[in-house]
Amino acid sequence: MGPGAGSEEEGGGRAPSAVRVRPRTEVPQATADVDRSDSAYRAWLKDAVRKVQADANRSADTHLLLFPLPEAWGIDLYLKDESTHPTGSLKHRLARSLFLYGLCNGWIRPGKPVIEASSGSTAVSEAYFAKLIGVPFVAVMPRTTSPEKIRLIEFHGGRCHFVDDPRTMYEESATLAERTGGHYMDQFTYAERATDWRGNNNIAESVYQQLRRERYPEPAWIVATAGTGGTSATIARYVHYMQHDTRICVPDPENSCFFDGWTHADPDASSDCGSRIEGIGRPRMEPSFVPGAIDRMMKVPDAASVAAVRALERAIGRKAGGSTGTGLWSAFRIVAEMVERGERGSVVTLICDGGERYLDKYYSDAWLAEQGLDIGPYSAAIDGFLRTARLGA
């Protein structure tokens, strides 16, 4: 299959305003077993919030890296390197926001477990914050999650609870929370509301601050892949709130329903199997995915995603996860279109996490063969793009 095959795209406009994601039924919280006016609980809560906020205060902002493109093109391509967070991924921001949200709502309680449905990186980051404030953590995840992510969750003191069907993660997490008296964090519902999208050093505000001395300080496009949809929602809302002209593109991998749901205004869109690109793509339209805020979506073949992360390593010497490749392939397409139209400007995408977690997947030729993925045509297309600014049909 050539680089253009299977690479459907819907561009040049937003999904109809009637698109709405079906609200999820709220999972009742377990009956409180502490008096929230009790001084011991309030002291614990204040200390927990302080520790989570102190983590942010200790962390320098993540780097904005420049991808080498020919100077004559007049286009700058940047990668926001979220792999440098303490837990190694973009999900560190989300986990911090979710813990603050849960603590300040009175949902996370001393001694009670925090439970999350996660394919890996969110669970790694949440395990870190659970350990930081001294509560147990359980990650409900597909059995196919990479061994390195499982190791990292356990390294931070978390426990892994496996399911065979990714579609059962939600119910299993809610059941565990009810049975243990813990809190189901539910990133797929709360990601878009736990983060302060108006500013407060969110990822969008950070990007614009870091670009302010560049030759094109307001990017033409920001490309953000979607797992929960929280990052794309935060960036899009910030762009609209600040009245920037930047447009937002969300690439979607194979075996994910976001593209179809956005394109056909279908809140009930679904997929029968899970994404091979860990951390992004979902089998259902998630509550935190905000279709109306997005300008464009692309459907990206998994082989193109893998080819792109390998090209990234050749270009800047950095390994990254498959979701980074999904975004980078889309960014390449956008740059090619801009060059063809004679436009100048900047494009930003994300390094979502490091590739060391996926050495047995996206950097393994044996895994590619097992999955039936041929990255050769896409690698050739990228090499051609970097010479000619044309990515292929």
UniProtKB/TrEMBL annotation:
Family stated for the protein in its record: Belongs to the cysteine synthase/cystathionine beta-synthase family. Cds1 subfamily.
HAMAP family, sorted: Cds1
Positions carrying N6-(pyridoxal phosphate)lysine: K91
Organism field: Streptomyces sanyensis
Gene that produces this protein: cds1
Enzyme class: lyase
Function: A cysteine desulfhydrase that generates hydrogen sulfide, H(2)S. The H(2)S produced by this enzyme modulates the balance between respiration and glycolysis, and contributes to redox homeostasis. Probably eliminates toxic levels of Cys (which can induce oxidative stress).
Reaction equations catalysed: L-cysteine + H2O = hydrogen sulfide + pyruvate + NH4(+) + H(+)
SUPFAM superfamilies, alphabetized: Tryptophan synthase beta subunit-like PLP-dependent enzymes (SSF53686)
Species classification: Bacteria, Bacillati, Actinomycetota, Actinomycetes, Kitasatosporales
Protein name stated in the entry: L-cysteine desulfhydrase Cds1
